[in-house]
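Note to self: user wants both folds in one dump. Writing first protein now.
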Amino acid sequence: MKVKNKRQSHIKSNIWVSEINDIIRGICGGFLFGIPLLYTMEVWWIGSVVKPQMNIIAIILTFVVVYLLNRTEGFRKYRKDNRPYEAIINTIEAMAIGIICSVFMLILLREITPDNFLKESVGKIIFESVPFTFGVALANQFLGESNGDSDSRNNQQNQHKNHQKSNHKLISKSTAKSEQLYATLSDIGATLIGATVIAFNIAPTDEISMLAAAFSPIWLLLIILVSLLISYSIVFQAGFSNQQKRQQQEGIFQRPSSETIMAYLVSLIASAFMLWFFQKLTFNDPWTMWLDHTLLLGLPASIGGAAGRLAI
Protein backbone atom coordinates (compact mmCIF):
# COMPACT_ATOMS: atom_id res chain seq x y z
CA MET A 1 0.00 0.00 0.00
CA LYS A 2 2.82 2.40 0.87
CA VAL A 3 4.58 1.63 -2.43
CA LYS A 4 1.36 2.31 -4.32
CA ASN A 5 0.84 5.64 -2.54
CA LYS A 6 4.43 6.65 -3.28
CA ARG A 7 3.92 5.84 -6.95
CA GLN A 8 0.71 7.85 -7.08
CA SER A 9 2.31 10.85 -5.39
CA HIS A 10 5.29 10.58 -7.76
CA ILE A 11 2.96 10.52 -10.78
CA LYS A 12 1.06 13.55 -9.47
CA SER A 13 4.28 15.46 -8.88
CA ASN A 14 5.44 14.64 -12.42
CA ILE A 15 2.14 15.90 -13.81
CA TRP A 16 2.50 19.18 -11.95
CA VAL A 17 6.14 19.55 -13.05
CA SER A 18 5.14 18.91 -16.66
CA GLU A 19 2.28 21.41 -16.37
CA ILE A 20 4.58 24.09 -14.96
CA ASN A 21 7.17 23.44 -17.67
CA ASP A 22 4.50 23.76 -20.38
CA ILE A 23 3.31 27.06 -18.94
CA ILE A 24 6.87 28.41 -18.69
CA ARG A 25 7.51 27.36 -22.29
CA GLY A 26 4.35 29.10 -23.41
CA ILE A 27 5.17 32.30 -21.50
CA CYS A 28 8.68 32.42 -22.96
CA GLY A 29 7.37 31.80 -26.46
CA GLY A 30 4.89 34.62 -25.95
CA PHE A 31 7.67 37.02 -25.00
CA LEU A 32 9.83 35.99 -27.96
CA PHE A 33 7.03 36.66 -30.43
CA GLY A 34 5.16 39.47 -28.69
CA ILE A 35 7.84 41.81 -27.38
CA PRO A 36 8.52 43.75 -30.65
CA LEU A 37 4.88 44.80 -31.08
CA LEU A 38 4.74 45.79 -27.43
CA TYR A 39 7.07 48.70 -28.22
CA THR A 40 4.81 50.07 -30.95
CA MET A 41 2.87 53.21 -30.01
CA GLU A 42 0.40 52.79 -32.87
CA VAL A 43 -0.89 49.63 -31.21
CA TRP A 44 -1.29 51.54 -27.93
CA TRP A 45 -3.30 54.24 -29.69
CA ILE A 46 -5.45 51.82 -31.68
CA GLY A 47 -6.16 49.77 -28.58
CA SER A 48 -7.18 52.84 -26.60
CA VAL A 49 -9.80 53.99 -29.13
CA VAL A 50 -10.95 50.75 -30.78
CA LYS A 51 -14.64 49.87 -30.62
CA PRO A 52 -15.87 46.84 -28.64
CA GLN A 53 -16.93 45.10 -31.86
CA MET A 54 -13.32 45.07 -33.08
CA ASN A 55 -12.17 43.67 -29.76
CA ILE A 56 -14.63 40.80 -30.12
CA ILE A 57 -13.49 40.14 -33.71
CA ALA A 58 -9.84 40.11 -32.58
CA ILE A 59 -10.65 37.59 -29.84
CA ILE A 60 -12.58 35.33 -32.23
CA LEU A 61 -9.87 35.39 -34.92
CA THR A 62 -7.17 34.72 -32.35
CA PHE A 63 -9.15 31.79 -30.95
CA VAL A 64 -9.63 30.24 -34.40
CA VAL A 65 -5.97 30.54 -35.40
CA VAL A 66 -4.64 29.26 -32.06
CA TYR A 67 -7.15 26.40 -32.09
CA LEU A 68 -5.89 25.26 -35.49
CA LEU A 69 -2.31 25.45 -34.22
CA ASN A 70 -3.20 23.42 -31.15
CA ARG A 71 -4.73 20.73 -33.35
CA THR A 72 -1.22 20.00 -34.61
CA GLU A 73 1.20 21.16 -31.91
CA GLY A 74 0.88 23.99 -29.44
CA PHE A 75 2.90 24.98 -26.41
CA ARG A 76 2.35 21.54 -24.88
CA LYS A 77 4.13 18.40 -25.99
CA TYR A 78 2.30 16.87 -28.95
CA ARG A 79 -0.04 13.99 -28.31
CA LYS A 80 -1.23 11.78 -31.16
CA ASP A 81 -4.62 11.34 -29.50
CA ASN A 82 -5.12 15.09 -29.28
CA ARG A 83 -8.89 15.53 -29.27
CA PRO A 84 -10.92 18.59 -30.29
CA TYR A 85 -12.00 19.43 -26.74
CA GLU A 86 -8.36 19.20 -25.57
CA ALA A 87 -7.38 21.66 -28.29
CA ILE A 88 -10.16 23.99 -27.10
CA ILE A 89 -8.87 23.83 -23.52
CA ASN A 90 -5.30 24.44 -24.67
CA THR A 91 -6.48 27.36 -26.80
CA ILE A 92 -8.26 28.99 -23.89
CA GLU A 93 -5.19 28.46 -21.72
CA ALA A 94 -2.90 29.91 -24.40
CA MET A 95 -5.10 32.99 -24.74
CA ALA A 96 -5.15 33.40 -20.96
CA ILE A 97 -1.35 33.25 -20.85
CA GLY A 98 -1.14 35.78 -23.67
CA ILE A 99 -3.51 38.18 -21.92
CA ILE A 100 -1.71 37.85 -18.58
CA CYS A 101 1.67 38.47 -20.23
CA SER A 102 0.40 41.53 -22.11
CA VAL A 103 -1.21 42.95 -18.95
CA PHE A 104 1.99 42.43 -17.00
CA MET A 105 4.16 44.10 -19.66
CA LEU A 106 1.78 47.00 -20.21
CA ILE A 107 1.79 47.67 -16.47
CA LEU A 108 5.58 47.35 -16.37
CA LEU A 109 5.94 49.82 -19.25
CA ARG A 110 3.50 52.22 -17.58
CA GLU A 111 1.04 52.01 -20.47
CA ILE A 112 -1.61 50.81 -18.05
CA THR A 113 -2.03 52.92 -14.96
CA PRO A 114 -4.85 53.39 -12.42
CA ASP A 115 -5.81 56.59 -14.24
CA ASN A 116 -6.52 54.97 -17.61
CA PHE A 117 -7.29 51.40 -16.60
CA LEU A 118 -11.04 51.51 -17.27
CA LYS A 119 -10.96 53.83 -20.29
CA GLU A 120 -8.13 52.57 -22.50
CA SER A 121 -6.84 49.28 -21.12
CA VAL A 122 -9.22 46.69 -22.61
CA GLY A 123 -8.36 47.40 -26.23
CA LYS A 124 -4.63 47.69 -25.49
CA ILE A 125 -4.65 44.36 -23.67
CA ILE A 126 -6.55 42.53 -26.39
CA PHE A 127 -4.50 43.88 -29.29
CA GLU A 128 -1.18 43.34 -27.52
CA SER A 129 -2.19 39.85 -26.40
CA VAL A 130 -2.65 38.65 -30.00
CA PRO A 131 1.10 38.26 -30.81
CA PHE A 132 1.73 36.99 -27.28
CA THR A 133 -0.92 34.29 -27.75
CA PHE A 134 0.49 33.32 -31.15
CA GLY A 135 3.90 33.05 -29.51
CA VAL A 136 2.47 30.78 -26.82
CA ALA A 137 0.90 28.52 -29.43
CA LEU A 138 4.01 28.43 -31.64
CA ALA A 139 6.53 28.03 -28.83
CA ASN A 140 6.84 24.26 -28.92
CA GLN A 141 6.43 23.97 -32.70
CA PHE A 142 9.24 26.33 -33.65
CA LEU A 143 11.49 26.32 -30.58
CA GLY A 144 10.88 22.97 -28.94
CA GLU A 145 12.58 19.71 -29.69
CA SER A 146 11.13 16.34 -30.42
CA ASN A 147 11.73 13.35 -28.21
CA GLY A 148 13.87 11.77 -30.87
CA ASP A 149 16.06 14.82 -31.11
CA SER A 150 16.30 14.97 -27.33
CA ASP A 151 17.25 11.30 -27.06
CA SER A 152 19.84 11.52 -29.81
CA ARG A 153 21.28 14.66 -28.26
CA ASN A 154 21.47 12.98 -24.86
CA ASN A 155 23.22 9.99 -26.40
CA GLN A 156 25.68 12.26 -28.14
CA GLN A 157 26.33 14.13 -24.91
CA ASN A 158 26.91 10.89 -23.01
CA GLN A 159 29.29 9.68 -25.67
CA HIS A 160 31.05 13.02 -25.61
CA LYS A 161 31.39 12.85 -21.82
CA ASN A 162 32.80 9.32 -21.97
CA HIS A 163 35.19 10.35 -24.68
CA GLN A 164 36.29 13.33 -22.61
CA LYS A 165 36.87 11.14 -19.56
CA SER A 166 38.94 8.61 -21.50
CA ASN A 167 41.07 11.31 -23.06
CA HIS A 168 41.17 13.65 -20.11
CA LYS A 169 44.82 13.02 -19.46
CA LEU A 170 45.72 13.80 -23.07
CA ILE A 171 44.14 17.26 -23.06
CA SER A 172 46.46 20.04 -22.02
CA LYS A 173 45.43 22.97 -19.86
CA SER A 174 46.03 25.40 -22.71
CA THR A 175 43.67 23.45 -24.96
CA ALA A 176 40.97 23.47 -22.29
CA LYS A 177 41.35 27.21 -21.83
CA SER A 178 41.12 27.82 -25.57
CA GLU A 179 37.91 25.76 -25.73
CA GLN A 180 36.42 27.76 -22.87
CA LEU A 181 37.40 31.00 -24.57
CA TYR A 182 35.84 29.85 -27.86
CA ALA A 183 32.58 28.89 -26.10
CA THR A 184 32.48 32.23 -24.31
CA LEU A 185 33.10 34.20 -27.51
CA SER A 186 30.38 32.19 -29.26
CA ASP A 187 27.92 33.09 -26.49
CA ILE A 188 28.85 36.76 -26.67
CA GLY A 189 28.61 36.81 -30.46
CA ALA A 190 25.22 35.06 -30.52
CA THR A 191 23.89 37.38 -27.81
CA LEU A 192 25.19 40.45 -29.64
CA ILE A 193 23.60 39.40 -32.92
CA GLY A 194 20.22 38.57 -31.38
CA ALA A 195 20.15 41.74 -29.28
CA THR A 196 21.17 43.92 -32.23
CA VAL A 197 18.47 42.47 -34.48
CA ILE A 198 15.75 43.36 -31.97
CA ALA A 199 17.24 46.69 -30.86
CA PHE A 200 17.77 47.75 -34.47
CA ASN A 201 14.01 47.66 -35.06
CA ILE A 202 13.06 49.60 -31.91
CA ALA A 203 15.93 52.06 -31.35
CA PRO A 204 15.06 54.44 -34.26
CA THR A 205 11.49 54.94 -33.03
CA ASP A 206 10.20 57.39 -30.43
CA GLU A 207 8.76 54.73 -28.12
CA ILE A 208 11.82 54.52 -25.90
CA SER A 209 11.86 58.27 -25.26
CA MET A 210 8.12 58.28 -24.55
CA LEU A 211 8.40 55.42 -22.09
CA ALA A 212 11.48 56.84 -20.36
CA ALA A 213 9.64 60.04 -19.48
CA ALA A 214 7.30 58.12 -17.16
CA PHE A 215 9.87 55.92 -15.42
CA SER A 216 11.21 56.26 -11.90
CA PRO A 217 14.29 54.47 -10.46
CA ILE A 218 12.08 51.78 -8.87
CA TRP A 219 10.48 50.95 -12.21
CA LEU A 220 13.90 50.83 -13.87
CA LEU A 221 14.99 48.34 -11.23
CA LEU A 222 11.94 46.22 -12.06
CA ILE A 223 12.91 46.40 -15.75
CA ILE A 224 16.34 44.98 -14.90
CA LEU A 225 14.90 42.14 -12.82
CA VAL A 226 12.30 41.23 -15.44
CA SER A 227 14.92 41.31 -18.22
CA LEU A 228 17.16 38.90 -16.31
CA LEU A 229 14.27 36.62 -15.35
CA ILE A 230 12.83 36.34 -18.86
CA SER A 231 16.18 35.77 -20.58
CA TYR A 232 17.15 33.16 -17.96
CA SER A 233 13.81 31.35 -18.38
CA ILE A 234 14.03 31.32 -22.17
CA VAL A 235 17.48 29.76 -22.25
CA PHE A 236 17.53 27.52 -19.20
CA GLN A 237 13.96 26.79 -18.05
CA ALA A 238 11.56 26.78 -21.01
CA GLY A 239 12.69 23.44 -22.46
CA PHE A 240 13.47 24.84 -25.90
CA SER A 241 16.02 23.26 -28.21
CA ASN A 242 19.63 23.12 -27.01
CA GLN A 243 18.66 23.71 -23.37
CA GLN A 244 20.71 20.71 -22.25
CA LYS A 245 23.63 21.99 -24.27
CA ARG A 246 23.29 25.46 -22.76
CA GLN A 247 23.32 24.07 -19.23
CA GLN A 248 26.47 22.05 -19.93
CA GLN A 249 28.43 24.60 -21.91
CA GLU A 250 32.05 24.99 -20.87
CA GLY A 251 32.70 28.69 -21.34
CA ILE A 252 34.20 31.05 -18.81
CA PHE A 253 30.67 31.96 -17.65
CA GLN A 254 29.70 28.32 -17.29
CA ARG A 255 26.91 28.78 -14.78
CA PRO A 256 23.40 29.76 -15.95
CA SER A 257 23.26 32.74 -13.58
CA SER A 258 26.63 34.17 -14.62
CA GLU A 259 25.89 33.56 -18.30
CA THR A 260 22.55 35.37 -17.95
CA ILE A 261 24.19 38.39 -16.34
CA MET A 262 26.97 38.43 -18.93
CA ALA A 263 24.45 38.22 -21.79
CA TYR A 264 22.36 41.02 -20.26
CA LEU A 265 25.39 43.33 -20.08
CA VAL A 266 26.15 42.55 -23.72
CA SER A 267 22.54 43.35 -24.62
CA LEU A 268 22.79 46.67 -22.78
CA ILE A 269 25.93 47.54 -24.72
CA ALA A 270 24.18 46.72 -27.99
CA SER A 271 21.17 48.82 -26.92
CA ALA A 272 23.29 51.85 -26.02
CA PHE A 273 25.16 51.61 -29.31
CA MET A 274 21.92 51.40 -31.31
CA LEU A 275 20.50 54.44 -29.54
CA TRP A 276 23.69 56.39 -30.27
CA PHE A 277 23.82 55.11 -33.86
CA PHE A 278 20.31 56.39 -34.57
CA GLN A 279 21.03 59.69 -32.77
CA LYS A 280 18.51 59.05 -30.01
CA LEU A 281 21.34 59.64 -27.56
CA THR A 282 24.40 61.86 -27.84
CA PHE A 283 27.47 62.28 -25.67
CA ASN A 284 26.08 65.64 -24.52
CA ASP A 285 23.06 63.98 -22.91
CA PRO A 286 23.17 63.35 -19.14
CA TRP A 287 24.11 59.90 -17.89
CA THR A 288 20.64 59.43 -16.39
CA MET A 289 19.14 59.71 -19.86
CA TRP A 290 21.61 57.14 -21.17
CA LEU A 291 20.71 54.87 -18.27
CA ASP A 292 16.92 54.87 -18.56
CA HIS A 293 16.89 54.69 -22.38
CA THR A 294 19.40 51.84 -22.41
CA LEU A 295 17.59 49.84 -19.73
CA LEU A 296 14.25 50.19 -21.50
CA LEU A 297 15.69 49.04 -24.82
CA GLY A 298 17.67 46.39 -22.95
CA LEU A 299 14.51 44.46 -22.12
CA PRO A 300 13.64 43.47 -25.71
CA ALA A 301 17.35 43.30 -26.58
CA SER A 302 18.01 40.77 -23.83
CA ILE A 303 15.14 38.63 -25.12
CA GLY A 304 16.67 38.81 -28.60
CA GLY A 305 20.03 37.87 -27.11
CA ALA A 306 18.47 34.84 -25.45
CA ALA A 307 17.00 33.77 -28.78
CA GLY A 308 20.43 34.20 -30.37
CA ARG A 309 22.03 31.91 -27.82
CA LEU A 310 19.35 29.29 -28.47
CA ALA A 311 20.36 29.28 -32.13
CA ILE A 312 23.99 28.24 -31.58
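First done. Writing the second protein, which came from a different request thread.
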Amino acid sequence: MKLSVGGALKVAFRPWAEGLENIPAEGPAILASNHLSFSDSFFLPAVLDRKITFIAKAEYFTTPGIKGRLTAAFFKGVGQLPVDRTGGRGAGEAAIRSGIGVIERGELFGIYPEGTRSPDGRLYRGKPGGLARVALATGAPVIPVAMIDTEKIQPPGKIVPKLMRPGIRIGKPLDFSRYHGMEHDRFILRSVTDEVMYEIMKLSGQEYVDMYATAAKRQIAEEAKRQQEREKPARAEKAGRAERAEGTGRPRSTAAEIAATADTADESGA
Protein backbone atom coordinates (compact mmCIF):
# COMPACT_ATOMS: atom_id res chain seq x y z
CA MET A 1 0.00 0.00 0.00
CA LYS A 2 2.76 2.45 0.92
CA LEU A 3 4.53 1.92 -2.41
CA SER A 4 1.43 1.98 -4.61
CA VAL A 5 -1.68 3.55 -3.08
CA GLY A 6 0.24 5.53 -0.46
CA GLY A 7 2.66 6.98 -2.98
CA ALA A 8 -0.13 7.95 -5.35
CA LEU A 9 -2.08 9.63 -2.53
CA LYS A 10 0.92 11.72 -1.51
CA VAL A 11 1.53 12.84 -5.08
CA ALA A 12 -2.13 13.61 -5.89
CA PHE A 13 -3.30 15.12 -2.59
CA ARG A 14 -0.04 16.27 -0.96
CA PRO A 15 -1.23 15.72 2.64
CA TRP A 16 0.58 17.77 5.26
CA ALA A 17 1.50 16.33 8.63
CA GLU A 18 2.55 17.80 11.97
CA GLY A 19 4.01 15.91 14.91
CA LEU A 20 5.47 12.93 13.07
CA GLU A 21 8.25 12.92 15.65
CA ASN A 22 5.67 11.74 18.21
CA ILE A 23 5.36 8.36 16.48
CA PRO A 24 7.92 5.94 17.98
CA ALA A 25 10.39 4.44 15.53
CA GLU A 26 9.75 1.05 17.09
CA GLY A 27 7.66 -0.54 19.81
CA PRO A 28 3.90 -0.59 20.38
CA ALA A 29 1.57 2.39 20.50
CA ILE A 30 -2.14 3.12 20.06
CA LEU A 31 -3.11 5.80 17.53
CA ALA A 32 -6.50 7.25 18.48
CA SER A 33 -7.97 9.42 15.73
CA ASN A 34 -11.09 11.37 14.93
CA HIS A 35 -13.02 9.90 12.00
CA LEU A 36 -14.31 12.16 9.25
CA SER A 37 -14.07 10.06 6.10
CA PHE A 38 -13.48 6.57 4.72
CA SER A 39 -10.19 7.98 3.38
CA ASP A 40 -8.81 8.53 6.92
CA SER A 41 -7.54 4.95 6.94
CA PHE A 42 -5.56 5.70 3.77
CA PHE A 43 -4.07 9.13 4.47
CA LEU A 44 -2.77 8.37 7.96
CA PRO A 45 -0.80 5.24 6.97
CA ALA A 46 0.44 7.04 3.85
CA VAL A 47 2.38 9.65 5.85
CA LEU A 48 3.95 7.18 8.30
CA ASP A 49 6.91 4.90 7.77
CA ARG A 50 5.47 2.20 10.02
CA LYS A 51 2.49 -0.03 9.40
CA ILE A 52 -0.75 0.69 11.28
CA THR A 53 -3.29 -2.06 11.88
CA PHE A 54 -6.87 -0.85 12.13
CA ILE A 55 -10.01 -2.70 13.07
CA ALA A 56 -12.31 -2.85 10.04
CA LYS A 57 -15.98 -3.80 9.96
CA ALA A 58 -16.59 -7.35 8.78
CA GLU A 59 -18.75 -6.16 5.85
CA TYR A 60 -15.57 -5.07 4.07
CA PHE A 61 -14.50 -8.71 4.00
CA THR A 62 -17.83 -10.42 3.26
CA THR A 63 -19.59 -8.25 0.66
CA PRO A 64 -20.44 -10.37 -2.44
CA GLY A 65 -19.66 -9.48 -6.03
CA ILE A 66 -16.54 -8.30 -7.83
CA LYS A 67 -16.36 -5.06 -5.87
CA GLY A 68 -16.74 -6.97 -2.61
CA ARG A 69 -13.96 -9.40 -3.49
CA LEU A 70 -11.61 -6.58 -4.49
CA THR A 71 -12.38 -4.72 -1.26
CA ALA A 72 -11.79 -7.84 0.84
CA ALA A 73 -8.51 -8.53 -0.97
CA PHE A 74 -7.31 -4.99 -0.31
CA PHE A 75 -8.13 -5.00 3.40
CA LYS A 76 -6.60 -8.44 3.88
CA GLY A 77 -3.53 -7.36 1.94
CA VAL A 78 -2.87 -4.40 4.22
CA GLY A 79 -3.40 -6.51 7.34
CA GLN A 80 -6.63 -5.01 8.63
CA LEU A 81 -8.65 -6.93 11.21
CA PRO A 82 -12.28 -7.86 10.45
CA VAL A 83 -14.68 -7.42 13.36
CA ASP A 84 -18.38 -8.34 13.31
CA ARG A 85 -20.18 -5.31 14.75
CA THR A 86 -23.54 -7.11 14.95
CA GLY A 87 -22.54 -9.55 17.65
CA GLY A 88 -23.02 -7.29 20.65
CA ARG A 89 -20.62 -7.72 23.52
CA GLY A 90 -18.94 -10.71 21.87
CA ALA A 91 -17.95 -8.59 18.90
CA GLY A 92 -16.55 -5.91 21.20
CA GLU A 93 -14.48 -8.47 23.10
CA ALA A 94 -13.10 -9.80 19.82
CA ALA A 95 -12.04 -6.30 18.81
CA ILE A 96 -10.28 -5.76 22.15
CA ARG A 97 -8.45 -9.09 21.92
CA SER A 98 -7.36 -8.22 18.39
CA GLY A 99 -6.03 -4.85 19.52
CA ILE A 100 -4.14 -6.41 22.43
CA GLY A 101 -2.58 -8.90 20.02
CA VAL A 102 -1.33 -6.10 17.77
CA ILE A 103 0.22 -4.29 20.74
CA GLU A 104 1.84 -7.49 22.07
CA ARG A 105 3.55 -7.90 18.69
CA GLY A 106 5.12 -4.47 19.17
CA GLU A 107 3.11 -2.82 16.38
CA LEU A 108 0.96 0.28 15.93
CA PHE A 109 -2.75 -0.17 16.57
CA GLY A 110 -5.14 2.37 15.04
CA ILE A 111 -8.60 3.01 16.44
CA TYR A 112 -11.44 5.54 16.05
CA PRO A 113 -12.84 6.13 19.57
CA GLU A 114 -16.06 7.65 18.17
CA GLY A 115 -16.88 4.22 16.77
CA THR A 116 -18.12 5.54 13.42
CA ARG A 117 -17.64 8.47 11.06
CA SER A 118 -18.86 11.86 12.19
CA PRO A 119 -22.14 12.66 10.39
CA ASP A 120 -21.51 16.42 10.28
CA GLY A 121 -17.81 17.12 10.81
CA ARG A 122 -18.11 17.64 14.57
CA LEU A 123 -16.27 15.58 17.19
CA TYR A 124 -18.47 13.19 19.16
CA ARG A 125 -18.14 11.45 22.49
CA GLY A 126 -15.67 8.57 22.54
CA LYS A 127 -16.89 5.08 23.39
CA PRO A 128 -15.24 3.78 26.58
CA GLY A 129 -14.50 0.34 25.23
CA GLY A 130 -11.75 -0.71 22.87
CA LEU A 131 -9.37 2.24 23.20
CA ALA A 132 -9.24 2.46 26.99
CA ARG A 133 -9.30 -1.27 27.62
CA VAL A 134 -6.47 -2.01 25.19
CA ALA A 135 -4.43 0.85 26.65
CA LEU A 136 -4.92 -0.24 30.26
CA ALA A 137 -4.46 -3.94 29.57
CA THR A 138 -1.16 -3.41 27.71
CA GLY A 139 0.27 -0.19 29.13
CA ALA A 140 0.90 1.06 25.59
CA PRO A 141 1.01 4.84 25.10
CA VAL A 142 -1.96 6.46 23.37
CA ILE A 143 -1.12 8.96 20.64
CA PRO A 144 -3.97 11.37 19.74
CA VAL A 145 -4.38 12.08 16.03
CA ALA A 146 -6.51 14.68 14.24
CA MET A 147 -7.52 14.28 10.59
CA ILE A 148 -8.14 17.66 8.98
CA ASP A 149 -10.54 18.29 6.02
CA THR A 150 -10.78 14.66 4.91
CA GLU A 151 -14.60 14.92 5.05
CA LYS A 152 -14.37 17.57 2.32
CA ILE A 153 -12.31 15.27 0.10
CA GLN A 154 -14.68 12.30 0.36
CA PRO A 155 -17.98 13.01 2.12
CA PRO A 156 -20.11 9.99 3.11
CA GLY A 157 -21.70 8.42 0.05
CA LYS A 158 -19.25 9.95 -2.41
CA ILE A 159 -17.08 7.54 -4.40
CA VAL A 160 -14.92 9.95 -6.41
CA PRO A 161 -12.75 12.07 -4.09
CA LYS A 162 -12.22 15.80 -4.54
CA LEU A 163 -8.63 16.86 -5.12
CA MET A 164 -7.62 19.04 -2.19
CA ARG A 165 -4.96 18.97 0.50
CA PRO A 166 -5.84 17.23 3.80
CA GLY A 167 -3.90 17.54 7.03
CA ILE A 168 -2.85 15.31 9.91
CA ARG A 169 -1.85 16.52 13.37
CA ILE A 170 -0.24 14.04 15.72
CA GLY A 171 -0.10 14.84 19.42
CA LYS A 172 2.29 13.80 22.15
CA PRO A 173 1.87 10.30 23.64
CA LEU A 174 -0.43 9.98 26.64
CA ASP A 175 0.66 7.67 29.47
CA PHE A 176 -2.09 5.83 31.32
CA SER A 177 0.15 3.33 33.08
CA ARG A 178 -1.14 4.69 36.42
CA TYR A 179 -4.39 2.86 35.65
CA HIS A 180 -2.78 -0.43 34.61
CA GLY A 181 -4.96 -3.42 35.50
CA MET A 182 -8.09 -1.29 35.98
CA GLU A 183 -9.51 -1.96 32.52
CA HIS A 184 -12.78 -3.27 34.00
CA ASP A 185 -13.54 -0.12 36.02
CA ARG A 186 -16.11 1.77 33.94
CA PHE A 187 -15.32 5.09 35.63
CA ILE A 188 -11.63 4.77 34.77
CA LEU A 189 -12.49 3.75 31.21
CA ARG A 190 -14.69 6.84 30.86
CA SER A 191 -11.99 9.10 32.28
CA VAL A 192 -9.28 7.74 29.98
CA THR A 193 -11.51 8.02 26.91
CA ASP A 194 -12.55 11.58 27.72
CA GLU A 195 -8.93 12.65 28.21
CA VAL A 196 -8.00 11.26 24.80
CA MET A 197 -11.00 12.93 23.13
CA TYR A 198 -10.07 16.26 24.71
CA GLU A 199 -6.59 16.04 23.19
CA ILE A 200 -8.05 15.14 19.79
CA MET A 201 -10.39 18.15 20.06
CA LYS A 202 -7.44 20.48 20.75
CA LEU A 203 -5.56 19.11 17.74
CA SER A 204 -8.50 19.16 15.32
CA GLY A 205 -10.26 22.36 16.40
CA GLN A 206 -13.60 20.57 15.99
CA GLU A 207 -16.73 21.47 17.90
CA TYR A 208 -17.30 18.81 20.55
CA VAL A 209 -20.71 17.17 20.99
CA ASP A 210 -21.33 15.25 24.22
CA MET A 211 -23.24 12.41 22.62
CA TYR A 212 -22.32 9.34 20.61
CA ALA A 213 -22.02 9.70 16.83
CA THR A 214 -24.25 6.65 16.36
CA ALA A 215 -27.04 8.40 18.28
CA ALA A 216 -26.52 11.56 16.22
CA LYS A 217 -26.85 9.55 13.02
CA ARG A 218 -30.14 8.08 14.25
CA GLN A 219 -31.44 11.55 15.06
CA ILE A 220 -30.46 12.85 11.62
CA ALA A 221 -32.15 9.87 9.91
CA GLU A 222 -35.30 10.28 12.00
CA GLU A 223 -35.49 14.00 11.26
CA ALA A 224 -35.06 13.32 7.53
CA LYS A 225 -37.91 10.80 7.73
CA ARG A 226 -40.14 13.29 9.57
CA GLN A 227 -39.33 15.93 6.97
CA GLN A 228 -40.37 13.55 4.21
CA GLU A 229 -43.64 12.86 6.02
CA ARG A 230 -44.30 16.60 6.34
CA GLU A 231 -43.65 17.11 2.64
CA LYS A 232 -45.91 14.24 1.52
CA PRO A 233 -49.18 16.28 1.35
CA ALA A 234 -47.53 19.02 -0.69
CA ARG A 235 -46.01 16.51 -3.10
CA ALA A 236 -49.35 14.71 -3.44
CA GLU A 237 -51.16 17.99 -4.16
CA LYS A 238 -48.56 18.96 -6.74
CA ALA A 239 -48.87 15.56 -8.42
CA GLY A 240 -52.68 15.85 -8.38
CA ARG A 241 -52.60 19.28 -10.07
CA ALA A 242 -50.29 17.92 -12.73
CA GLU A 243 -52.58 14.95 -13.40
CA ARG A 244 -55.67 17.16 -13.60
CA ALA A 245 -53.92 19.54 -15.98
CA GLU A 246 -52.83 16.68 -18.22
CA GLY A 247 -56.38 15.29 -18.20
CA THR A 248 -57.78 18.50 -19.75
CA GLY A 249 -55.32 18.38 -22.61
CA ARG A 250 -54.14 21.86 -21.64
CA PRO A 251 -50.75 23.05 -20.48
CA ARG A 252 -50.26 22.47 -16.77
CA SER A 253 -52.07 25.17 -14.83
CA THR A 254 -53.84 25.57 -11.56
CA ALA A 255 -57.40 24.37 -10.97
CA ALA A 256 -58.48 28.01 -10.42
CA GLU A 257 -57.15 29.04 -13.85
CA ILE A 258 -59.02 26.15 -15.53
CA ALA A 259 -62.28 27.07 -13.74
CA ALA A 260 -61.95 30.75 -14.68
CA THR A 261 -61.47 29.85 -18.35
CA ALA A 262 -64.58 27.64 -18.27
CA ASP A 263 -66.76 30.45 -16.79
CA THR A 264 -65.67 32.89 -19.50
CA ALA A 265 -66.56 30.39 -22.21
CA ASP A 266 -70.10 29.90 -20.80
CA GLU A 267 -70.79 33.65 -20.68
CA SER A 268 -69.77 34.07 -24.32
CA GLY A 269 -72.25 31.41 -25.42
CA ALA A 270 -69.55 29.07 -26.59
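Dump finished. Worth passing along: Strands lie at 16-18, 29-33, 52-57, 81-83, 108-111, 123-124, 142-148, 167-170, 208-209.
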